[in-house]
Design goal:
Oligomer: single chain
Strand content: 15-25%
Number of helices: 2
Number of domains: 1
Radius of gyration: 15 Å
Helix content: 55-70%
Length: 66
């Protein structure tokens, strides 16, 4: 259990650190990523980006289980 928790924490940390570079690739501005701007506040819901990152991480996890 601790092994999986540590893996998830490290993946979240890596994603947070790499996010500026991932943004340059278009991640976060995909169709399906919702952005609302109201009275000086911005609300951002990256639905498509989350699905894409999840699919990639699932594929990587599946490949390393061989």
């Amino acid at each position: 259990m601790a092994k999986y928790f540590l893996t998830i924490v490290l993946a979240c940390l890596a994603t947070g650190v790499l996010w500026p570079w991932l943004g340059r690739l278009g991640l976060g501005r995909l169709p399906g990523d919702v952005r609302f701007v109201r009275k000086g506040s911005m609300y951002y819901f990256p639905f498509t980006s989350c699905l894409l990152v999840t699919a990639i991480l699932t594929l990587i996890a599946w490949l390393f289980r061989l």
